[in-house]
């Protein structure tokens, strides 16, 4: 039944292309209905889900001569990310309610992207995984190139090429693994069980992990992210930062780590104090956390602040992946969900509420506009989103970052401490952006405020959806933790657990 | 060398005969019957005849599975060759349909006839194991293609392209012939199996290497592999669109089959210097493949003309396809077949779209700006073709690459470096394909331009091609099944 | 154990009020009425809790404990004992006073009152939560509205004041967070009660030592740092010198009704933290650091008194005076920690009782004082300098009379509520930390001086023409102030009213601080 999330989205995209060009309303409504239906399907599956099971959704032979199957399934981790996709999809449509130019194409591409993302999270066949993963690149390109803002074409091309290069790296690894395992099947579970030789895993793991990590925004391959997010139209940034970066992290977990866990073992020698790929990636993740936050602190462009903050938060995800213990990995998946929602909120405020009205992203130009008085809803939303982003208790980010820090402490204590420092910098840049953008100069309080369009119902609805999600999980994390925890005990992760599990 | 009755021979070569005869028929009809009619009528009649002929040839090839090897391999008819012949005829049908109502020539009958002769040449080319017959049919093919390239008498570019093509081709043919003669001298046979037998008992001498290099040069020219590719950009750009389409699709298919046959059957023996992945020609082809991938993809980045871009991309793709030849096992052959056929479809489609835009005189990439608003369906088809060439799933180009690369790796782990290079260059190629798509979809049209009107037949052809590209990508088995059946029915 | 969740209801009441206020639309009065209703209801619930509270028992009452995040071992755990109930009482009281003081506030009242109610939620939550996770959430929930209250409605230097306030408090909060993270890493627990039990039974020290070594530093060393980090968080809040430098600007620039909240309730969060968290969990570290801490307390008392004397802005005077008064409370708490081998328990109890009594009384008095300053500001068009006024006694006698009472209460005049608390503190502390107590007396003297100076300059002296038309208190204002002033008298004569609430808890706390666990 969950497969319908994919089909509905694609069908919605197709239907949209058939609606008359002039009827913007129809396009918006269709898109919203599609997004809601997809989410409804996911929720229905969630309600009936038994924690720890791997729900088989579809399994048909596709290209039998190569052993490729059309195999869709969901475990707790997939389900969490499916929920994230659904929520961000709905919010994205709501925040794009004001798109006037080529509306139906916009929503069609949006839904195409959503469908592909659903597909990735549901794929349990490596070939199928890759198909959906690459399929997502093209809608991303067009969404940014056509509807983006400053520097859109360059940003779109950069994003497309980085993603493609990353997936090319993954393809090499996947083909190599497929051939090494006898070229009989591309089933995820079977390949996960296959005992690859250690020297094989030692070069395939970093290749595949890096390929995915590029899309997850790992330092130093993250440069596409701030540019891309800043140039993209709001809904695209929400999806990009919120969901698509998680595709990369999900790939790191589901493919790189699950299939080639031996690649994380120690090399047997030391280079610059590092003794394994695991150590290297953990350090790179940490650099991403601190670097992202530090650079965000000095940005002049509001959207770039958020873009770099995404890099920082994804650093947490990647660090969490490398902790290789139960609590760290739980926190990682939860952080994927949490950051997805929060990034969505932040970009919604910055992109839709502020930029679409003021047509500037520069902090020093926004200050004198006294946005806190003119669009107080946006200010309040940003405050709440900022609090969530910092990781205050009551919002979903707290438990997630907490668990990652604890997991990191057990694996790499020094890195955990430094990551804590990163959180501090995070507080600083969030507060700086808030202050500069919304509260402006105290001295010029008598200056007449600019008049801006009021916040529409669609924006309020979208904000409520995202806010409700992050608060619900923040107040009751078990909503998701009950899905995530048992998922790591399934046989899929046997190889991972046997190895370095703490 | 069994004696054979003429009827037997005729029966076996029926597809080629039909095509040749229909070629003559088209010529005659045009000259005799419809000369005075309108342009459109002449095209319709000619195309109808040609397509019927090709369709007939396809039916003959597919519905009568034969298995024969006569005159010591001068003619080999197997399910595989029949399959390839059917594909070649299919490409020709598509090319013919694309040429309907073109205005670059008044000599419609001649044009279609030469297309059919080229097809006949290709059909013979793929069903022979005799070096001289290979040469002869290769010449038939090449000469036809030179003429087809020059057919636009009003365009200087067309003439220039044809001349370059001819000069290069002549050189390459000469070298090829020289290579054949060396092989004959070394092995005493002009048949591939004979050559192979001779190899078993002889060591690898420099003369063998020279012969091998010459063979590769001759055939490498045909497949537009670097460094024998210099004719391709001009030919693709200058030739009339249907001709270019044919060069890019069917000629490529035929040439690759021949290359694979010569390499795998002729220059292979159980002796260690020639067998399987260690065969001596493998490093040579590896170098050629790498050069093609690099030269093709890197040069394509800086092109401003769509056709030249397609030409350089063809060179790059030739590099990938060489992987299938190098793999040289049945796996490699399957992957190669799938890849070349689907590649042919995609390129044909791309040229088709360009043909539709020919009224506008569009060749520059910049000229495609805003096409999505002026011709949405055409743009969508172009999207499919470009993305398939780039290797984006779920289109056939992606599966072709996956299949090809995994088959290459399965055949020999040594090919890993080449696979990595191929995938890397694939990633690079996305850039220039996206550039084209960017012009079409992202940029806005300038105000004065009107919607593009495409003739129905052309629309249908392009759509069918696009549909095939999508279908074969989502259900590769459609084609794979056919290939597998053909291969399985063969003795080796 | 899980009876009717009164405490959760209590915490939810102002929150629900805040949501309602935000939804009230354009009706100017609706926001005020909803706010008054919400804070009134909160007070009613607190009084109800008081009624149902068993004062004879020092144990936790109205307890609710439910599993919340089992993966981290976190429960939703709320309860109150005497200490908690005291804090709830004073919070409800101060918020109500603040709402009354800002009744005629015109600008963006919906947001203003919503923020006040959110702050009240944070207060109630902080004083009832017993698990670090949600305690910290409420702690921060108190910070954010306060920041915005200063930033949006404050005086000319509000940006800088709000920033300073935010940064200092945030740094302190981060210290707390890191400290508890470390504790969790070592013990796997977040619950204050569980941790206190561990400390008492002597398990906490070894657990920290074992779990926290990192690099070249031993667990014991890191445990000390953990203590200081947590201390920092509370020290900034109270505040204790030298972490008080945010306070004068924040108190001065904030609208006076917000300053009432800052001084009346938020500073008590710091004291509460010292008593609820720091003392039970880190008795050894506190004892070890006691000399230094005592000096800090004395500095708070004495230094701030001198500085207050030098100020000319009424709000700044009262701001520094707050630091001074709370310094006494800190002194009272600190002497109770001192290791005496079981002796002097009575003195310790007295000191603590006094500290808590003083806490309540200071809340009442300081809030009232700032209320008066607010009224003065409103009448004078924003002026509040010491030398701006004169002879108001003749022009607005009722005002001066009531304010005079508050000032004398702050001075510690017997008969008013300021006296018993200070008396108890000094009584208890004298035996336990003689020198510190002696030095603190200086603070008393200086306080008396500057407070009398205020009376002299503002109330007495020639009437300047400017103030000839100053309005005296209106009937509404008199009615609003009456309960507060009456309470000052009541508590002056019958402090047992408050001491009775906390005494059992104090005795239990003192006895639990018993054995000195060597480290």
Q: Can you describe this structure in just a few lines?
A:
Chain A is 73% helix and 5% strand. Chain A is mostly helical. In chain A, the strands form two sheets. Chain A has a two-stranded antiparallel sheet. In chain A, strands 3-4 form a two-stranded antiparallel ribbon.
Radius of gyration of chain A: 22 Å
Rg of chain B, rounded, reads 22 Å
Number of domains of chain A: 1
Give the averaged pLDDT of chain B, no decimals: 86
Terminal residue distance of chain B: 20 Å
Q: In one word, what is the shape of chain A? A: globular
Total domain modules of chain B: 1
- Count of strand segments of chain A: 4
Q: Estimate what percentage of residues of chain B fall within beta strands.
A: under 5%
Order of helices and strands of chain A: HHEEHHHHHHHHHEEHHHHHHHHHHH
Uncertain runs of chain A: none
Strand order of the largest sheet of chain A: 1-2
* Quaternary form: heterotrimer
Question: Biggest sheet of chain B, in brief?
Answer: 2 strands, antiparallel
Total beta-strand segments of chain B: 2
Gross morphology of chain B? globular
Q: Could you describe the 3D structure shown?
A:
The complex is a heterotrimer of chains A (502), B (492) and C (519). With 502 residues, chain A is mostly helical. Chain A has one domain. Chain A has helices at residues 3-18, 24-47, 76-95, 103-122, 126-135, 137-147, 152-180, 188-193, 198-215, 224-231, 234-259, 277-297, 302-323, 326-358, 363-366, 371-374, 376-390, 396-411, 413-439, 457-475, 478-487, 494-500, and strands at residues 55-63, 68-74, 266-271, 274-276. In chain A, the strands form two sheets. A two-stranded antiparallel sheet of chain A has the order 1-2. In chain A, helix 4 runs parallel beside helix 11. Chain A starts with a helix and ends with a helix. Chain B has 492 residues and is mainly α. Chain B has one domain. Chain B is built from 20 helices and two strands. Chain B has helices at 6-12, 14-33, 39-63, 79-99, 108-126, 131-150, 156-187, 192-201, 206-223, 231-238, 241-266, 281-301, 306-327, 330-356, 371-374, 376-390, 396-411, 416-442, 456-474, 477-488; strands spanning 68-70, 75-77. Chain B has a two-stranded antiparallel ribbon with strand order 1-2. In chain B, strand 1 and strand 2 form a beta hairpin. In chain B, helix 7 (156-187) packs across helix 8. Chain B is globular. By secondary structure, chain C is mainly alpha-helical. Chain C contains 20 helices and two strands. Chain C has helices at residues 6-22, 28-52, 82-101, 109-128, 132-153, 158-187, 192-200, 204-211, 219-237, 247-253, 256-281, 283-310, 314-337, 345-380, 392-395, 397-411, 418-432, 434-459, 475-493, 496-512; strands at residues 61-69, 74-80. Chain C has a two-stranded antiparallel sheet with strand order 1-2. In chain C, strand 1 and strand 2 form a beta hairpin. In chain C, helix 1 (6-22) runs antiparallel to helix 4 (109-128) and helix 10 (247-253) runs antiparallel to helix 11 (256-281). The model of chain C has no long low-confidence stretch (mean pLDDT 85). Chains in contact: A-B, A-C. The A-B interface holds A 62-66, 127, 130-132, 134-135, 137-138, 141-142, 145-146, 153, 156-157, 160-161, 164-165, 168, 171-172, 175-176, 178-179, 183 and B 387, 392-394, 398-399, 402-403, 405-406, 409-410, 413, 416, 419-420, 423-424, 426-427, 430-431, 434, 438, 441-442, 476-477, 480, 484.
């Amino acid at each position: 039944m969950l497969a319908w999330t994919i089909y509905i989205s694609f069908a919605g995209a197709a239907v949209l292309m058939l609606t008359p060009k002039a009827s913007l309303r129809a396009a918006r409504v269709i898109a919203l209905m599609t997004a809601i239906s997809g989410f409804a399907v996911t929720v229905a599956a969630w309600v009936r889900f038994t924690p720890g099971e791997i729900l088989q959704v579809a399994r048909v032979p596709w290209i039998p001569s190569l052993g490729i199957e059309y195999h869709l399934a969901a475990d707790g981790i997939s389900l969490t990310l499916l929920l994230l996709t659904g929520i961000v999809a709905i919010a994205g449509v709501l925040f794009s309610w004001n798109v006037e130019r080529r509306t139906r194409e916009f929503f069609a591409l949006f839904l195409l992207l959503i469908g592909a993302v659903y597909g990735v999270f549901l794929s349990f066949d490596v070939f199928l995984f890759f198909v959906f993963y690459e399929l997502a690149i093209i809608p991303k390109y067009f969404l940014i190139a056509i509807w983006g803002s400053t520097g859109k074409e360059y940003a779109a091309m950069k994003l497309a090429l980085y993603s493609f290069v990353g997936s090319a790296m993954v393809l090499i690894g996947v083909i190599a693994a497929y051939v090494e395992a006898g070229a009989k099947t591309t089933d995820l579970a079977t390949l996960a069980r296959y005992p690859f030789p250690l020297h094989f895993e030692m070069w395939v793991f970093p290749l595949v992990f890096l390929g995915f990590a590029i899309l997850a925004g790992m330092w130093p391959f993250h440069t596409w992210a701030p540019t891309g997010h800043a140039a993209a139209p709001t809904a695209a940034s929400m999806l990009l930062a919120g969901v698509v970066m998680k595709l990369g992290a999900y790939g790191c977990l589901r493919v790189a780590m699950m299939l080639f866990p031996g690649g994380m073992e120690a090399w047997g020698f030391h280079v610059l104090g590092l003794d394994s790929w695991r150590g290297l990636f953990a350090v790179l993740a940490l650099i991403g956390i601190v670097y992202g936050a530090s650079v965000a602190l000095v940005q002049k462009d509001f959207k770039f602040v958020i873009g770099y903050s995404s890099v920082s938060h994804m650093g947490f995800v990647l660090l969490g992946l490398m902790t290789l213990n139960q609590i760290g990995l739980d926190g990682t998946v939860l952080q994927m969900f949490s950051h997805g929602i929060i990034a969505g909120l932040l970009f919604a405020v910055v992109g839709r509420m502020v930029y679409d009205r003021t047509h500037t992203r520069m902090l020093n130009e926004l200050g004198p506009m006294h946005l806190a008085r003119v669009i107080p809803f946006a200010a309040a939303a940003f405050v709440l989103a900022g609090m969530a982003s910092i990781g205050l208790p009551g919002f979903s980010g707290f438990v997630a970052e907490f668990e990652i820090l604890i997991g990191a402490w057990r694996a790499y204590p020094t890195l955990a401490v430094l990551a804590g420092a990163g959180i501090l910098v995070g507080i600083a840049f969030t507060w700086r952006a808030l202050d500069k953008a919304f509260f402006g100069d105290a001295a010029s309080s008598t200056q007449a405020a600019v008049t801006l369009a009021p916040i529409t119902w669609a924006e309020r609805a979208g904000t409520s959806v995202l806010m409700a999600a992050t608060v619900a999980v923040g107040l009751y994390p078990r909503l998701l933790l009950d899905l995530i925890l048992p998922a790591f005990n399934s046989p899929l992760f046997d190889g991972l657990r046997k190895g370095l599990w703490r | 060398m069994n004696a054979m009755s003429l009827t037997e021979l005729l029966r076996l070569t029926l597809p080629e005969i039909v095509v040749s005869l229909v070629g003559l028929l088209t010529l005659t009809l045009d000259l005799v019957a419809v000369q005075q009619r309108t342009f459109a009528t002449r095209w319709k009649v000619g195309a109808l005849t040609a397509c019927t002929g090709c369709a007939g040839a396809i039916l003959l090839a597919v519905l009568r599975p034969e298995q024969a090897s006569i005159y010591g391999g001068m003619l080999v008819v197997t399910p595989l060759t029949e399959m390839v012949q059917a594909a070649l005829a299919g490409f020709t049908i598509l090319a013919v349909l694309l040429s309907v109502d073109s205005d670059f020539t008044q000599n419609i009958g001649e044009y279609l006839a030469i297309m059919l002769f080229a097809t006949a040449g290709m059909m013979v080319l793929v069903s022979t194991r005799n070096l001289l017959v290979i040469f002869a049919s290769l010449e038939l093919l090449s000469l036809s293609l030179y003429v087809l390239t020059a057919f636009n008498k009003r365009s200087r570019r067309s003439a220039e392209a044809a001349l370059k093509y001819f000069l290069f081709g002549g050189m390459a043919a000469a070298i090829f012939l020289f290579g054949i003669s060396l092989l004959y001298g070394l092995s005493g046979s002009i048949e591939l199996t004979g050559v192979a037998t001779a190899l078993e008992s002889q060591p690898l001498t420099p003369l063998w290497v020279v012969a091998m290099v010459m063979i590769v040069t001759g055939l490498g020219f045909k497949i537009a592999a670097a460094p024998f590719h210099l004719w391709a950009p001009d030919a693709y750009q200058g030739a009339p669109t249907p001709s270019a389409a044919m060069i890019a699709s069917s000629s490529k298919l035929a040439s690759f089959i021949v290359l694979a046959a010569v390499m795998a059957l002729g220059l292979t023996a159980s002796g260690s210097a020639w067998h399987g992945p260690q065969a001596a020609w493998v490093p040579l082809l590896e170098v050629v493949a790498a050069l093609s991938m690099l030269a093709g993809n890197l040069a394509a980045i800086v092109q401003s003309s769509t056709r030249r871009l397609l030409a350089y991309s063809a060179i790059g793709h030739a590099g990938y396809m060489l992987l299938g030849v190098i793999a040289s096992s049945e796996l490699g052959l399957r992957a190669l077949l799938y890849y070349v056929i689907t590649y042919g479809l995609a390129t044909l489609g791309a040229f088709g779209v360009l043909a539709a835009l020919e009224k506008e005189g569009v060749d520059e990439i910049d000229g495609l700006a805003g096409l999505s608003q002026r011709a949405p369906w055409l743009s969508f088809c172009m999207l499919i073709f470009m993305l398939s060439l780039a290797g984006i799933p779920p289109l056939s180009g992606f599966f072709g690459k996956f299949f090809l690369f995994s088959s290459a790796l399965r055949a020999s782990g040594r090919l890993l470096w080449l696979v990595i290079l191929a995938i890397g260059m694939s990633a690079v190629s996305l850039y220039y394909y996206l550039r084209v798509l960017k012009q079409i979809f992202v940029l806005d049209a300038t105000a004065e331009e009107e919607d593009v009107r495409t003739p129905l037949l052309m629309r249908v052809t392009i759509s069918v091609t696009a549909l095939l590209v999508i279908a074969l990508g989502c259900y590769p088995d459609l084609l794979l099944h056919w290939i597998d059946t053909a291969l399985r029915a063969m003795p080796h | 154990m899980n009876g009717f969740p009164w405490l959760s209801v209590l915490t939810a009441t102002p929150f629900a009020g805040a949501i309602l206020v935000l939804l009230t639309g354009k009706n100017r009065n609706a926001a005020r009425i909803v706010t008054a209703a919400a804070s009134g209801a909160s007070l009613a619930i607190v009084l109800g809790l008081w009624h149902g509270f068993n004062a004879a028992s020092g144990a936790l009452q109205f307890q609710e404990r439910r599993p919340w995040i089992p993966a981290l071992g976190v429960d939703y755990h709320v309860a109150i004992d005497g200490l908690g109930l005291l804090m709830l009482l004073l919070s409800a009281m101060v918020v109500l006073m603040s709402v009354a003081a800002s009744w005629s506030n015109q600008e963006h009242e919906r947001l203003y009152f919503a923020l006040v109610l959110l702050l009240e939620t944070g207060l109630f939550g902080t004083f009832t939560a017993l698990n670090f996770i949600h305690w910290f959430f409420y702690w921060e929930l108190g910070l954010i509205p306060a920041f915005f209250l200063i930033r949006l409605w404050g005086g000319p230097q509000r940006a800088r004041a709000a920033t300073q306030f935010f940064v200092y408090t945030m740094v302190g909060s981060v210290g707390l967070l890191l400290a508890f993270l470390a504790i969790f890493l070592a013990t796997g627990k977040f619950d204050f009660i569980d941790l206190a039990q561990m400390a008492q039974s002597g398990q906490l020290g070894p657990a920290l030592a074992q779990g926290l070594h990192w690099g070249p530093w031993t667990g014991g060393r890191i445990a000390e740092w953990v203590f200081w980090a947590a201390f920092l968080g509370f020290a900034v809040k109270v505040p204790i010198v030298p972490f008080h430098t945010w306070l004068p600007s924040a108190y001065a620039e904030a609208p006076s009704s917000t300053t009432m909240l800052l001084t009346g309730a938020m500073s008590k969060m710091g004291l509460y933290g010292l008593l609820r968290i720091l003392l039970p969990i880190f008795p050894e570290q506190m004892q070890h650091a006691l000399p230094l801490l005592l000096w800090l307390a004395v500095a708070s008392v004495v230094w701030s008194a001198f500085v207050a004397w030098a100020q000319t802005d009424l709000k700044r005077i009262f701001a520094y005076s707050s630091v001074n008064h709370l310094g006494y409370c800190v002194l009272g708490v600190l002497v109770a920690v001192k290791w005496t081998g079981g002796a002097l328990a009575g003195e310790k109890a007295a000191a603590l009782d006094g500290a808590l009594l003083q806490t309540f009384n200071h809340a009442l008095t300081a809030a009232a004082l700032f209320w008066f300053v607010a009224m003065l500001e409103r009448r004078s068009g924003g002026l509040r300098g010491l030398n701006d006024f004169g002879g108001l006694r003749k022009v607005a006698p009722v005002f001066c009379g009531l304010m005079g009472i508050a000032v004398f209460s702050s001075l510690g005049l017997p008969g008013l509520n300021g006296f018993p608390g200070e008396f108890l503190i000094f009584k208890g502390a004298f035996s336990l930390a003689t020198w510190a107590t002696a030095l603190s007396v200086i603070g008393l003297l200086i306080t008396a001086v500057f407070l009398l100076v205020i009376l002299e300059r503002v109330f007495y002296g020639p009437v300047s023409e400017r103030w000839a038309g100053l309005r005296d208190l209106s009937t509404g204002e008199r009615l609003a102030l009456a309960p507060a002033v009456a309470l000052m008298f009541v508590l002056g004569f019958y402090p047992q009213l408050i001491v009775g609430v906390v005494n059992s808890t104090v005795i239990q706390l003192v006895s639990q601080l018993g054995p000195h666990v060597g480290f």
